Structure formats: structure tokens, C-alpha cells
Amino acid sequence: MSGENRKLAAIVFTDICGFTELMSKDEKKAMAILEYQKVLLKPIINNFNGEWLKEIGDGLLISFSSAVNAVTCSLEIQRILEHNPDLTIRIGIHIGDIIKKDGDVFGDGVNIASRLESLADPGGICVSERVHEDIKNKPEINAAFQEEQLLKGLDKPIKVYSIFTHMDSISKSEIKKYPKIKTGTKLLFLTGIFISVLLGLFFFLFDYNENDETHSKKKSIAVLPFDNMSEDNKSDYFSDGITEDIITYLSKIENLKVISRTSIMQYKNSKKNLKDIAKELGVSNILEGSVRRVDNRVRITGQLIDAETDEHLWANIYDRNLDDIFSVQTEVAKNIARALKAEMTDDDITRLNKTMTTNPDAYELILKIKGTNFTNRNDVLLREEVLKKVVLLDPESAYAFARLGGIHAWIYFSGTDRTKERLIMAKEALDKSLDLDPLSATAHLELGFYYYSAFLDFDKGLKNYEIAKKLDPNNPDINWRISLVLRRQGKFWESFELMKKCFDLDPKNKLYPDQMILMTSYLGLSQNFDEYFKIATELGMDTTTGLMYRVSEKFGRDGNLDEYRNIIEDANKIVHDTWFHKYIAEYYRITGNYELSLSHIDMLRDQDHNAQTQYLNKEYLRGVIYKIMNQDKRSLSFFKDALVDIENQLIKVNDDPRFLASKGKILAYLGENKMAIKYGRMATEIVSVENDKLQGVDYNYDLAKIYSICGEFEKSIEEIRKIQKAQPKMAIVGFLTNDAEFSNIQDYPGFRRLINDYKEEQNI
Predict the structure, then answer these.
(1) Span 317-344, pLDDT tens digits
(2) Are 198 and 227 members of one domain?
(3) Rounded CA gap, 485 and 476, in Å?
(4) 42 and 151, same structural domain?
(5) Helices of type H across 440-577
(6) Which of 96, 175, 222, 386 is the most buried (most CB within 10 A)?
(7) Residues 273 and 197 in one domain
(8) H/E stretch holding 752
(9) Residue range 236-257, pLDDT digits in tens
(10) Which residues are CB-neighbours of 434 under 8 A, at least 6 positions away?
């Protein structure tokens, strides 16, 4: 046919979110955004060898020679636009024929790409099965099946996949593999960035309300604990559960900032006025209400209040049967979103319509365990039994199976039942959950924990956490778990930033600033230690824990014994716990007061076997002291007793690196050097600093001690160098120069050079 050019290509179709509405409200700004899009995106597309085919309204039609280039370019675009509120786009990608004729472009492939674009989230990417086949083996690209969809113009449905656009989905190493930008393109790209900055400033000045902090704060809410108005005052669990569920429903709305349960439950029965509560939580709006239950009937009242003005924005009363409670929660969330003018997407609505269960009896059981926690073994076992009952009552509850799988994984992780059978039960429950609902955020969250906790598979853990985040974007628990994985991957800054976001959504949760204190050590932010320490203690952080942190930072940084002594003096004013007695004993050991050191070792209570990285063996600690005192006979006796204890632990769990490392250190003192090193290396093979930048430090540190005790100084230094490479800012100098297990190596020239390198790195 004359004038026709046909070719097979990967077709990318984009569309600007909310453009039509903006055009009707502010044509000038809308046209500026179109120009902004062109200037910003063209250099990126050129860099990936893409062809800019045409502009279709606010949309773009682009072609690539390969699906990989099309997807990686789209990921780069979404990464760059991630923090740009003025330009948010959807992207659809398909492989098909492009027909160029008479200056126009068309074809079925173009139509399918446009339909896929409409299925993508704002800032998201949807691809067809044909594209997925080309990219599924690329580790840097993460995708998940979304749904089978009958698209307009097609005879049969096609499988649709979502590409995860979080910036960590493309590793830095992979970005480096992309074709180099030519000089001319570089200039154009930099010019585009410059123009985008100017345009961004223009948008801010032109319509400041859209980015004004006060404006966004208006879309923030805290749900105070609903009052229990039932005659049965023991049914607080029901009103508290309703409160938590409404919080959960509201947090599914992406444009809302919703304070989490941990923080709001601290205001139960509070006499504080709403304005003060809102100020403490950093929100503008408060939802308060009550729950009255009589038999199978429930009355829920709710009122939304602007805390600053005391204006009532919305109120309603719901009288329903218990089996209709789920629709009430959905309706409340939707009404509040409308009242706060928080735009709800189709995905928001889909998420809101999902329920934990449709069975009232099952729901009642779920509510009863919402207040239980994971730090108490009995609570965990109670959760397991209750969830087993729930899945019997409602075998279609994806939520219940997901939580049951998560509980099984936790029981394995905590050491309560570290058996293969427990892992099998966990995986079966999680697989069942995903069979029932492949897009369950809870299932992906718990599956992520399964891989993370049981197998230390950080990649699979993170992949599932990212899926969960996409499906439930405002859930601080998801962000928290992602931050923990990133930390163990050595991405400390990224982890720290996520922790701060969690703290913003849950400002009364002492867990977040507690862990942020630790992050100051990993990042070398010693100047920020006191700031976060103050926040944590004001929120009620355990005093003993706080003192341990102070020792780790203040003494660990440079070995200042005056600081250590001051902390010990503070410790005498409070009730100590197991772990801090170890620190007190260590202080007296360093200062040569061995009798006091031994007395504090005696005060250590029996070891908590659930500790994740260390195992306190009192016999071993006593043996070290007597070794220093040159009482070899007594020292040997304690080391032998310590060995018996560790071997008993290894009978129960033979692959626990804590016990393997402990056995290695004991054997080193018993003179069995070859076996000592073997057990120390076994621990690092399970968890090493190369693969785990957080907990791996402990086992490489123990191996370094073993080598030092055995007289293999260079190998000891080699292990410490691995730690230094993983955590160059870690506060460790004080411990290296004072640990008894390193006494043999203290005067070795290579060790002194190591210490000097640490000091130079940290400006000590």
C-alpha cells in the first residue's frame, strides 16, 4: 500500500493524570505542564534509543526496538517524576505492529497500549503478557500479575501485569549499564532539568495552595479511640477493633495522611482537648465516635472535626446488623475522604471494598486478637489458635490465611518452634491467601516477612514488601519492614528516611525513634544521637535500653572511660535489666575491678533465647574474667560448663549462628584452635557481613575474636576490615581497644594501623 510503513515494536503510551480537570480549571498551567513534559522526557527517551512518535492530547506515543528498553526507560521516567507533584503520568506498554501512513501512526498495538495505560496507577506502569514474557527474567525489573482484562476492541481477555516503579527496583549497577548520553543529549538533558526547576518554581508561585504545607495538612486525620457505649464494659476490644479497622480503611486512601493505631490508642480516655491532640499528632482533623452493641445490632456514631476551628465537617449514625459492619467502615472512609476533599482513585475504592472476612463470628475473633503483640510468647500462640478458628469459620478469608502464615513464620523466627514443619505451615497458609486474593497487601507483607525472617532472602522479602506497599501505600508497618530490609542490605540512609516517614504517621510509637538512635551509629551521626535519644526517652523508651545505646555510642565511638563511668552512675539510679548488667560488668572488667565485674555477671538473669544476634552465657563471661586474673584452673572449669550449655542449645537448633559463634569462642579459650575457627566460620557462612550489613557484623566480629584468641592476628584484622567496609561509621573503636578477647592483638602493628584508620575515617 502506498505511503504505508509497518514495523513490530514495543509501544509505550502515556497520559497525564488529572489533566482534563486541570485544563478546565487553569488552561495556562495545563499548557505549561505539557511543555514541561516535552522538555523533561525527550532526552530520557533519546537516551534509551526510543522514538518519539506523536503527541495525542496530553498523551505521548513512543516506540522502542525492545521491551526491555521500553520498560527501563519508563521506570527511569517514573523515578524522575516520583517527587514531582505537578506531573504524574500513567504508562501502558505492549508489543505489536505500528503502522505509519500519511504522517499518522496507528495500529492495534497502539490501541492496546493506550488501554493498558488506563489500567495503571498514577505514577505506575502496566504491561501486556507479551511484554512480560520479554522482561520476566530481568532481575532489575519487578512485576506482578494484576488481572485478566477484556480490553475494548479485543475478542478475548489478556493478562495484565504491573511494574513496580519504586526507585530501588532499578539498581545503581544496572543504571550504569544504560547507553551513555551523548554530549549534545547531555546538554539537552541538563537544560531540561534546569527548565523543569524553573517551571516547578513557576507552578509553586502561580498556585501556591497546591503545594502549601497547610493545604496538605488539611488532608490529615487522627481517629481517636471510639467510646464503648455497650452495657458490657468488657467489650472494649470490639470498639477498639472498630477504631483500628476504620484507621486501616482510611489509610488505604493514598491522598490522606492517617495516624496509626499505636499513637492514637494513647489517647484512650484522654481529657486533652482536640486542638492539643491534633497538634501533638501533626494533623488538622479528628474523627471521634462511639460504638454501642446489643446482641447482633451495632450502632456506630462518628463525627469529623476541624481541630483548629472546631468546625464539624461531617457526622452520621449507623444502625446495622453485625454482619453489615464492613459496609459501615467502607462508607465512613468514603465520606471522610469527600469531606476532606481527598481525591479517591479507582484503586482506592477497590482497596476499600476489600474486607478481612464476611463472617461475623470470624470478625469477632479477629477483633479479640488485635490488641495482642509479638513480644509476648503467649500472645503469639493465642493468635495462632484464634486464626486457625477464623479460617475454619471463613475458608475464603485471604486476610486470615495471610495472618496465620505470618504467625507461623514468626514462631519459626523467634525460636519457639524452629522446625521445617512450621515453615511448611507458613508457606501453605500464605499460598492459600494469594490463591484467594493475588492482590492482598497483607499476604504480600507476610510473604515478605517469611522470606526475610526464615531464609534471610532480602531480595524476595523486599520484592513482596514493595508489592504490599503498592497495594496499601500508607501503611507504616509496610514501610517499617522495608526499612529493616534496607538496613540489613547496607542502605542505611534509605532505611533512615523511611523510618522518619513511619514516625510521621505514628509519632507516639517509641519503636521508631528507638531504632533511629541506632541508625545514628551506622551513619556516623553522633551529633544527632542526643536528639533522638531525647525523643525516645520522652515517649517512654525502656531506660535500660537507653543506657545500652549510650554506652554503644559514647564509649564505642572513642573508648572514653569517663563517659562510660557517667553512664554507670546513671544506671545505679534505675532498675537494670539483664543486658545492662553485662555492660556494667564490662566497665568494671576494663577498669580492673574484677570482683565487681563478677558480681554483676551473677546478676544476669537466665538468657532470653529469643535474642536475635547475641547469646549471653554467664559461664563464658566468668571464664574470661578468671583468664584475665590468671586463674587458669577456674577459668577452664567455667569454659567447660559454658560448652555444655551451648552444645545443649545446638541440639535444639543446630544452625543458629549465635550458638555456633559462642561455641567457637569457647573452644578458642580451651585451646582447640582448629575447631574454634571452624565453628566461627560456620556462623559467618549462615549470616555474614557481606550479605547482611547489620547482623552479620556480630558474627564477623566474633570470628575476629576467635582468630585473635588463637593468635592468627592477620586473619582477625581481615574480619574487622570486612566490618569496616560494611559500616565505616560504626562506633566500634572503644570496643576494639578494650574487649578482653582482643587482648592478644592490642600491640600488633597491623591492629594499631586498623584503629588509626577507623579514627581517621570518623575524625576521632
Answers:
(1) 878 777 777 677 777 777 787 777 777 7
(2) no
(3) 14
(4) yes
(5) 441-455, 458-471, 476-488, 492-505, 511-523, 526-538, 543-550, 556-558, 561-571
(6) 222
(7) no
(8) helix 749-761
(9) 788 888 888 888 878 878 778 8
(10) 398, 440, 443, 444, 447
